Amino acid sequence: MEEILKSLGFEFGKFAWQVANFLVLLFLLKKFAYKPILNMLDERKKSIEDAINNAETAKNEAEKMRKEYEARLAEAKQDAQDIIAKATKLGEEIKKDIVTTAQNEATKAIQRAQEEITREKAQAIAALRDEVAILAVMAAGKILGKAITAADHEKLVKDFVAEVGDLKC
Amino acid sequence: MSAEGGHHGPIDPLFNPVIPGTEYHLPIYNFVITSWVIILILTITAILATKNMKRFPKGIQNVWEYAVEGLFGFYGGIMGEERARKYGPFLTTCFLYILLCNYSGLIPGAAMIKGFVPPTNNISITAGMSIMVFLSIFYFGIRAKGIGFFKHFFQPMAFLFILNVIEELVRPVSLSLRLYGNIYGEEMIIGKLAEMVPFLVPLPMMVLGVLTGGIQAFVFTLLASTYIAGATEEHH
Question: What's the ipTM?
């Protein structure tokens, strides 16, 4: 065994040095390389996972919000339409009211005017009748050649009026 | 010098100081200096990469992260992510150290300059690496399964115990010889070619050396990880 080792150039001193050097290197690299690097890789992995999860959550939230807003928008559109419909209906009603009122007013005004006309006419006829009677009596007096007394005059007018009173003008 | 396998390298050990208060020497071999430089390079780049880590990696941090993530992912494919986490540091250290050792042999002046001797072309050093794997199999196995780890020596039949022990013992031998033989052979060829025709001719061999260096580091780590995976497996 020793012969073989020696013929290969085995030296215990070198062997021992190598073992020592390797252990030192193992210690140094554990401290300065593997620990911090593995920690970093873990940390990065975690942060990437978190980022992906967060993105997923944010996406879901955004989707939810979008749906909510869409629903709200639809609602608002519906509301607007309702309001327009209501306003239109109200406008129609008001229009109808106004027209009806105006028609009534007009009818009433016409009626009033007719009444007024009738009354005026009646008054005019009455006034005319008196005037005509007086004129007629005066004309009659002229024809008779004598003045008619006040009493006669009045009596004549009354008679005349009574006679023609029934006549429609 | 048989240790240098025929290279006319610098005298080994480079320094041989006496340990104060004793009569023993502490030989500082050339490869030890190289090994320290490799350790320094790895450690300094690691410190630079991790001292101010960014969420979006750049430069050296990216290189280290890429290496660690890739290698740990590779072990994960063999033994599952959880065990890769536990045994990854050991395996990654094997890989990076062997890789740099192998490639150090391709730098001009390797094995010629004092203190610059590529470590992995020496059986003592590859044996040192292999013994770490050998011990780690036991260490990780016992830590994972307790005394139950030794059960596999008697499986599938009790009388196969001897065979299982031999298998276990052959592993570090094959690991160290494979690594040593490949790197030593390759560097020997490059060296001899460079001696004969120093211009252009050794180039294809050096390209091959880049391949061999990577492949051998990879094979060593792959085998080590399958050994450790086998030793720590929950049910057999």
Answer: 0.85
